Amino acid sequence: MEQSKAETVKDQVQSIYSITQSEITNEDGTPISVADLQDLVYQEVAYLAELLGFELED
C-alpha cells in the first residue's frame, strides 16, 4: 500500500490526485479500510510538505 516517492511537487500532487480517483484494495482484492486510506493520504501530504520544505504541525 506504500506509494513510491515522487521527485517533484507536480508528481506528488498527481500521486495524491490518483488516490482520490481509484479504488485502492488490499493484496487480496478487498477494499482498504478508512483508517488505512487516511494513513495513506497523511503520508502523501506529509511527503508533499517535505518537498515544499516545511513540516506539518499537529
Q: Could you describe the 3D structure shown?
A:
The protein has one domain (1-18, 31-57). The model has no long low-confidence stretch (mean pLDDT 88). The chain contains two helices and no strands. It is an all-alpha fold. Helix 1 (9-21) packs antiparallel against helix 2. It starts with 8 loop residues before the first helix and ends in a 6-residue tail after the last helix.
Radius of gyration: 12 Å
Instruction: Briefly note the structural class of the backbone.
Output: mainly alpha
Residue stretches low in confidence (pLDDT < 50, at least 5 long) are: none
Q: Indicate the mean pLDDT.
A: 88
Report helical residue fraction. 55-70%
What is the H/E order?
HH
Largest sheet: none
Total number of strands: 0
Strand content: under 5%
List the total number of helices: 2
Q: Based on CA inertia axes, which overall geometry fits?
A: globular
Number of domains: 1
The first-to-last residue Cα distance is 24 Å
